[in-house]
Automatic annotation (TrEMBL):
Keywords: Hydrolase. InterPro entries: AB_hydrolase_fold. Residues 67-91 are annotated as: Disordered. It comes from Actinidia rufa. Transmembrane segments: none annotated. The keyword Calcium does not apply. It comes from the Eukaryota. One of its GO terms (molecular function) is hydrolase activity. This is Alpha/beta-Hydrolases superfamily protein.
Length: 91
């Protein structure tokens, strides 16, 4: 989970953002933009830099997973549907 939040966010308290990040199962370095508000983070250069770094990391992760899935045995359509339902807790 990537978390980006301004320290002066007047909508979502910074403590909530930090707690969400702490509870995330998969973490990515958070960015707490000093002085940033709720709707102006894109005006901070460090936000753009961090977001670009995050997107690049996710692209690499996606490429790695895609490569591994090509090596894994393929399952039937029925198995895929069944697994998908179980993953989201549907029956």
């Amino acid at each position: 989970m990537n978390y980006l939040q301004g320290t002066n966010d007047d909508i979502v308290d910074l403590s909530h953002g930090k707690r969400l990040w702490e509870l995330a199962k998969e973490k990515y370095d958070p960015l707490w933009v000093k002085g940033g508000g709720h709707c102006n983070l894109e005006t901070y250069p460090e936000y753009i830099k961090h977001l670009r770094k995050f997107v690049n990391a996710m692209e690499k992760l996606s490429f790695t997973k895609e490569s591994k899935s090509r090596l894994a045995p393929t399952s039937s359509i029925t198995e895929s549907k069944h697994n998908k339902c179980l993953r989201f807790g549907r029956r």
